[in-house]
């Protein structure tokens, strides 16, 4: 076998190894953000079948799904802000709740059942509006920071800001209680971090191989 054929085989083998390494690194470092939703939302003050206008608390269930099959997620404190929308579509904050940080395993779900006592919320007035307009629109904003666990180490801190509108009818419950309301991202996704890492490692391998060829 000639020297040129041996060099060609070596180059092909290196390119294949480089491609497989880059693919492995990309799969290992790529993460999917948690999927969060409001599964239950209830205000007794808006329930027309009850005489409970004085109870202006909001009872809710927040569900958090980790879609990563091989990566855990560590959540910092989860901050929830509750607001009500007026006729001009302006939000008025009425409540705030903090859920303590926790760790979520691979491909796991977590449900956080809690309530928030509202402030500056006139249940009687809004109840009348719900009766006239059939529905009242609330806003739930979600803010936290997460770290992804890959093998034995955690990634850097990533901020996560989500939100969604919740439509409540005269029963005091969100419309269609059987279906959760997905909280959608309120900020651009930080997608370049892992791509930059993979590109750096690939370039390092190419430089190393080039230096090896020059010395040969």
Automatic annotation (TrEMBL):
It comes from the Eukaryota. One of its GO terms (biological process) is defense response to other organism. It is found in: Membrane. InterPro entries: NDR1-like. GO terms for cellular component: plasma membrane; plasmodesma. Keywords: Membrane. This is Protein NDR1-like.
